[in-house]
Fold:
Amino acid sequence: MKKLLYITANSKPEEMSASKTVGRAVVNRFLSLHSDFILEEIDLYKSHIPRLEYQYFDGRNALLKEDALKDLPQHQQEEIHKIVELTDQFKEADMYVIAAPMWSLSFPAPFKEYLDCIIMNEKTIRITEDKVKGLLDDKQRGMIYVQSSGGNIPWMTRPFLNKGINYVEDLMKMMGIKRFQELLVDGTGNSEEERRKAIEKAVEKIDNVIGEVWREE
Structure:
């Protein structure tokens, strides 16, 4: 079975979050179209995401080996094991859906801490003297990034304002995930009516977005 990993970065419950509401609709639709996938989820506000410390590494983004790991306090050993667990979970997936709001032209801090954990030498990337090579080009992978924002962002200014999406896309392609699609939930506004309309508009695009990011090879 293939794996769909659904990652959320919003402290609100799903019914209050536009990004998570649309993200769930994407996940449900994808699974209805692709019965050979199983779903795995991680809520970055509920899951513990380790903060990287220098003691955890023996080289450029390379975690300590098992023999050196034993010399660390138990808590730090557990943190390293959690980093490995998160990285392996990400690496094992075939399809990814991320749901996050736009915060300060980017995304909530727990998502950045998560990214720092999974971009790991000899796991998802390989660092050499002259380049960084992504290791996630070993099979078909795709990602849909669902972002909500309160205002309607004109298309001409999106490259300048959607810095979070641009950053995530660059990182994913660096790791080897070439198929990346955004799904914007713009104009959630200040009223429930504005929020509902923004969600409905985004949901209408789901089939097209899925078709672009995942085509059977």
